[in-house]
Amino acid sequence: MVSNSSREWVTLVDKESGLYNRLYLVHFLSEAFARARRYGGPLSCVLFRSAWWRGLEAIGEGGDPPAAAVRALGRLLLAEVREGDILGRWARDEFLLVASNTPPAGARACAENIFGKIEKFRPEGKLKGLSLSLRAGIAGLPGDQVRYAEDLPVLANERLLRAAREGEVLGAAESRGDAPESRQDAPEPRQET
Questions:
Q1: What is d(CA 53, CA 42) in angstroms, rounded to the nearest whole number?
Q2: Could you give the count of Cα atoms lying within 13 Å of 74 in the half-sphere of its Cβ?
Q3: Would you state the pLDDT for residue 175?
Q4: Which of 21, 38, 59, 140 could be disulfide-bonded to 52 (CB atoms 3.0-4.6 Å)?
């Protein structure tokens, strides 16, 4: 925690997910970006977008997903993060992985490990009967010509959105929960090369 000028505590952890919040992610990304540019090393960002489903109905559109769902997803994602990398909640349904000293190909491998865990994830307790879908966009150095650290998550988001519009998936995984029906709107997971 950090104190701001009004002597109130500023938290660096998102209360719902238990992960770092956007404030800390921006700080960490800025420092990692400066080091990568200075020393010519790699740096990658993976932006994950999640959606929770009950049967064929999306949960959380127009509202927030259940707090227990956000915390469960945060724990699941964090379990696959390597030491030295940082994962946090970027937005309501988005999580950002900042992977220092990792080229985009390495970040893709890390995302694929996470997708494998999501496919095996079976919500329990309060979340029983829910399904989870997760998509990802990746951007990084070297390779992507960006000027500012904040451009990496923006570029990862653009890639995620473009792939969705074109019916392609940079990375995707889905857990089916206990729902007897499968959703027909989600494209089959494919990896773009």
A1: 36
A2: 23
A3: 60
A4: 59
pTM as predicted: 0.81
pLDDT digits (tens, 9 = 90+) for 49-107: 988 776 656 665 545 667 888 888 889 889 888 899 999 999 988 999 999 999 999 99
- How far is Cα 7 from Cα 3, in angstroms, rounded to an integer? 6
pLDDT band at residue 173 under the 50/70/90 scheme: low
DSSP string, 56-83: TEEESTTSPPPHHHHHHHHHHHHTTPPT
Tell me which residue of 77, 60, 179, 163 sits closest to 118, measured CA to CA: 77
1, 11 Cβ separation under 8 angstroms: yes
Q: Give the pLDDT mean for 121-132.
A: 77
What is the widest separation between alpha-carbon atoms in the chain?
Answer: 53
By DSSP bridging, strand 94-100 and strand 43-54 are antiparallel
CA pair distance 135, 161, nearest whole angstrom: 10
Can you tell me whether residue 31 is helix, strand or coil? Answer: helix
- Quick one: which H or E segment has residue 115? helix 104-120
Name which of 40, 137, 151 is nearest 97 in CA terms. 137
